[in-house]
């Protein structure tokens, strides 16, 4: 389990992580989402103790990572796949780390085999591709047979096989009762593997919720309508107070009203329909809508006096019900 | 490709010995470490022999300022090069992981960071001491043999201060590489740590000696390479009137002090 409590990190004037409190539970894969610069990597660095928090705490399985008796057995980390000496071979790299962690030598061969690098284990790391580097990073993370695994963008540079493999691996690790925290910018990837989500923007929690709730909470009955009398139908729907947007002639999208209602209205007025389709909200769309505020807020803010702008719905405070606040607060 | 993780590998609670093993594997698994160490010993011995031969044939040799007549200085002419190489090895040992960002991986594996600094210092000392000893005593043996063959005066190990000078040279070379290690950790850059080390050890003393008035000789003696002149064959840039023992204390104080500053920075600052 990973737990942060009022975790805050300030670099000079920049507030990278702002009063972050969340818990990553064992037994499931938790996705860690946020736009670039949201503070994901900083949060992970604070959890590992690479950076010191300005205030607040981060613990792994109930203790500060640096205080663990056998750190490598508590937490396995992939933060930066290229953080290795290019002149050293994969095998020697892992041997050195295994020795540091009190891990027996044969475990090196096990993780090399596990990530499929045995054949290239004696090549210098400088010649590794991004995908091979990621595999080595995952091998490093699993070296100590850790209770908790934390991976920053692990699918970066992996091929389709590799992505499927890591998806299975993470699911298996969670099924074994381990804690898995996974950041990714590939929303579709997280959607397939993560059961729970922690979303941050500008260093603050935007959502801490199950994947199902995140998706349904963002659902607004988006319906695509195509009709030769699109304009007339759109005007009627708009009069009812639903949101109508139009991309092309003869086509528009309604939110807040179900397809059935649109069809009925059209039938009642004898309007011909060519298409009436309900669109599911993907995680990516739900996420973009949620983080939009955080991103644009960051764009026009010049200072670091976060919280001073009460108009920003999505950053209205890290209370327990942030999820609902953020989701209902975000404009359509 | 299997997806399951083999569970329950026996793990030892890692202490300093685990970090030492890790740092040893790191150093030993880089070919450049061995090349550097071999080069140090070879350069000292070869230059010692060549300098002895040149001295025997009547040419002026030795570092600038040395009179060339001291046989011990002559056979240890290569020490300045060894100092450069071992100093660079120290800087690389401290700074190289910052360049490759390996240091983050290292500190995640060993979150008690003082152990990393301590282990690197101990491993570096473990390899540098024998190499410096082989180079120093090898140069002495080879150079002395050449001088003897030419019928030139030589220094016996039993002569007053001779053995002390040779051992002092081993100590000095080791301390230079540890100073490099400390600077590498402090500056986190191979280039700037090498630059700083050369500045302090090679460039600063002659400049300070030339620019500062004679009344500051006491200050000049506190510079590491000038203090080293009191117990080695290294040539000082001013009048040195401290004993060998005081020189050793000054050099050790520099080394321990700079390592302590580096340790503090590593432990208290973000990686």
UniProtKB/TrEMBL annotation, chain A:
It comes from the Bacteria. Residues 299-332 are annotated as: Disordered. Residues 2-227 form the ABC transporter domain. PROSITE patterns: ABC_TRANSPORTER_2. InterPro entries: AAA+_ATPase, ABC_transporter-like_ATP-bd, P-loop_NTPase. Keywords: ATP-binding, Nucleotide-binding, Transport. Residues 312-332 have a biased composition (Polar residues). GO terms for molecular function: ATP binding. Signal peptide: none annotated. Pfam families: ABC_tran. SMART domains: AAA. Belongs to the ABC transporter superfamily. This is ATP-binding cassette domain-containing protein. It comes from Nocardioides fonticola.
Automatic annotation (TrEMBL), chain B:
It comes from the Bacteria. The chain crosses the membrane at residues 34-55, 75-95, 116-142, 162-187, 194-212, 242-263. Keywords: Membrane, Transmembrane, Transmembrane helix. This is ABC transporter permease. The lineage of its organism: Bacteria, Bacillati, Actinomycetota, Actinomycetes, Propionibacteriales.
């Amino acid at each position: 389990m990973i737990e942060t409590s009022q975790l805050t990190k300030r670099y000079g004037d920049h507030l990278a992580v702002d009063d972050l409190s969340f818990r990553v539970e064992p037994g499931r894969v938790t996705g860690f989402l946020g736009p670039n610069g949201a503070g994901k990597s900083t949060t992970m660095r604070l959890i590992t103790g690479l950076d010191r928090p300005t205030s607040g705490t981060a613990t792994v399985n109930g203790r500060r990572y640096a205080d663990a008796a056998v750190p490598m057995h508590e937490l396995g980390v992939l933060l930066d796949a290229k953080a290795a000496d290019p002149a050293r071979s994969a095998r020697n790299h892992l041997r050195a780390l295994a020795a540091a962690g009190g891990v027996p030598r044969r475990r090196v061969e096990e993780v090399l085999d596990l990530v499929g690098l045995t054949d290239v284990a004696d090549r210098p790391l400088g010649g590794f591709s991004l995908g091979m580097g990621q595999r080595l990073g995952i091998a490093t993370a699993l070296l100590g047979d850790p209770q908790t695994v934390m991976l920053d963008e692990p699918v970066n540079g992996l091929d389709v096989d590799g992505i499927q493999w890591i998806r299975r691996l993470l699911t298996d690790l969670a099924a074994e009762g381990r804690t898995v925290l996974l950041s990714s910018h590939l929303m579709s990837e997280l959607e397939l593997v993560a059961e729970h989500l922690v979303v941050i923007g500008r260093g603050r929690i935007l959502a801490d919720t199950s994947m199902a709730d995140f998706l349904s909470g963002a659902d607004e009955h988006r319906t695509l309508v195509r009709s030769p009398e699109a304009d007339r139908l759109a005007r009627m729907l708009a009069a009812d107070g639903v949101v109508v947007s139009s991309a092309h002639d003869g086509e528009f999208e309604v939110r807040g009203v179900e397809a059935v209602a649109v069809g009925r209205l059209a039938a009642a007025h004898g309007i011909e329909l060519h298409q009436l389709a309900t669109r599911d909200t993907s995680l990516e769309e739900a996420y973009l809508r949620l983080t939009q505020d955080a991103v644009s807020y960051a764009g026009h803010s010049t200072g670091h006096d976060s919280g001073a702008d009460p108009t920003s719905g999505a950053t209205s405070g890290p209370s327990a019900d942030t999820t609902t606040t953020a989701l209902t607060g975000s404009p359509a | 490709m299997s997806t399951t993780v083999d569970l329950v590998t026996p793990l030892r609670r890692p202490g300093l010995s685990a970090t030492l093993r890790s740092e040893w594997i790191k150093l030993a698994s880089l070919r450049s470490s061995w090349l550097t160490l071999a080069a140090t010993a070879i350069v000292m011995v070869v230059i010692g022999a060549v300098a002895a031969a040149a001295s025997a044939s009547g040419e002026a040799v030795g570092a600038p300022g040395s009179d060339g007549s001291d046989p011990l200085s002559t056979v240890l002419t290569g020490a300045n090069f060894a100092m450069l190489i071992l100093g660079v090895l120290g800087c690389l040992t401290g700074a190289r992981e910052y360049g490759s960002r390996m240091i983050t991986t290292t500190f995640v594996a060993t979150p008690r960071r003082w152990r990393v600094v301590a282990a690197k210092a101990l491993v570096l000392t473990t390899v540098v001491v024998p190499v410096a000893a082989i180079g120093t005593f090898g140069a002495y043996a080879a150079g002395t043999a050449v001088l003897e063959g030419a019928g030139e005066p030589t220094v016996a190990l039993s002569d007053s201060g001779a053995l002390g000078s040779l051992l002092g040279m081993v100590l000095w070379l080791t301390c230079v590489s540890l100073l490099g290690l400390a600077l590498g950790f402090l500056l986190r850059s191979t280039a700037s740590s090498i630059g700083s080390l050369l500045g302090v050890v090679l460039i600063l003393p002659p400049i300070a000696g030339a620019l500062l008035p004679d009344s500051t000789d006491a200050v000049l003696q506190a510079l590491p390479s000038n203090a080293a002149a009191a117990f080695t064959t290294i040539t000082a840039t001013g009048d040195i009137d401290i004993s060998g023992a005081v020189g050793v204390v000054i050099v050790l104080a520099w080394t321990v002090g700079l390592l302590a500053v580096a340790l503090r920075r590593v432990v208290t600052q973000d990686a």
